[in-house]
Amino acid sequence: MSSIQYVLLSLLAREPLSGYDMKQQINGRISFFYKISNNQLYPTLSKLETEEYIRLQSHERESYRPAKKIYTITDKGLDSLKAWVISPSEPGAWDEFLLKQYSSWLVEPEVMIAQLVERRKEHEARLEEYTVKAASLRGQEERIEAGHPLFSSIGVIEMGILFERGYADWCDKMIGWLRENRI
Amino acid sequence: MSSIQYVLLSLLAREPLSGYDMKQQINGRISFFYKISNNQLYPTLSKLETEEYIRLQSHERESYRPAKKIYTITDKGLDSLKAWVISPSEPGAWDEFLLKQYSSWLVEPEVMIAQLVERRKEHEARLEEYTVKAASLRGQEERIEAGHPLFSSIGVIEMGILFERGYADWCDKMIGWLRENRI
DNA sequence: GTAAACATGTAAATTGTTACATGATTTT
DNA sequence: AAAATCATGTAACAATTTACATGTTTAC
């Protein structure tokens, strides 16, 4: 099952929105790891409506054709969203985990702290792995020039190191904020 | 067109490998942003072979059934890979850009430097955007507790900030290494 | 003796992209 | 006068995931 329906529920859990508004918010705020197209958006919205996860709040018809359809989340939708947020994500699914954090305000902080502690471990382990790998690659030649394959290998591994360190640091930050109960 | 064929060519540009080996390398080194499944791997390999981007080097049959098929890249494959590496990536396609960097050792450093400078600008601009956004979200309430939607909004934006800063820093590092002609 | 690793491959189902279609309003 | 924005939606195509299929060897 894909995350798209939960992404839409995550946005509606905050405020009633139209499909168009949702797309704007997704493209403007979380586009670095999640993108959406019209073709997924509108059918998913219809599906969520017929299954009663969301409800049409108003159908504003302005001067021109397509009326703006504003949706609200139902209790069923909110329950389903909460269940998804606390459900464990696969190791490696850092993007799904981030998506869940966007609705973490809906659930008990203790549950989120426990999940973040787990994630931190995973990213720290991979940070260590990549660091060792980078050192071993560097050790293979005393001088590595731009035309050598090791140059690119190390370059990409360095991004992996930056990424894993960033994610681990972010987990730490989130844990700290949750414990203090303020951001 | 998807990146998978170029990922396989990128690996074969370094050394001859079997499909299984390629999968191991992908899962072990760049799995944080690129994943592959058997169903994509083997048909793509066949396609690359019939189109002469790669060639079967050996077909080692050991004691048990599936013989290990080791492939090498052809001149045509290498040319196609180089052309892909220097072709511009869409803004936002940070993963494809990283994939291209993995074969940057094959092309002129000047071309890569120019691309990295462009990328750096993009990520710096988005870093600025996210920083402003985070500040404005924080300014909405004087105390934001864990149960408040703003708590999660800021949390996720903070990851965006870390990500964009990380990517921009990495571009700087790469540019520096390319200019010094050593890593 | 059970599970994991080795090694290649296929089928079915889902998911996602690109392009199109409509049509008024606002900006360049 | 052209282009972009607003607003919803569909059709055709491409890509990806999940599960299956085979069968040996090595590790627990």
Automatic annotation (TrEMBL), chains A, B:
Keyword Coiled coil: yes
Coiled coil location: 113-140
Entry keyword set: Coiled coil
Pfam short name (any one): Vir_act_alpha_C
Domain Transcription regulator PadR C-terminal intervals: 95-176
Keyword Iron appears in the UniProt entry: no
Domain Transcription regulator PadR N-terminal: 8-82
InterPro entries attached to this UniProt entry: Tscrpt_reg_PadR_C (IPR018309), Tscrpt_reg_PadR_N (IPR005149)
PANTHER family referenced in this protein's UniProt entry, alphabetically: TRANSCRIPTIONAL REGULATOR YQJI, TRANSCRIPTIONAL REGULATORY PROTEIN
Protein name: PadR family transcriptional regulator
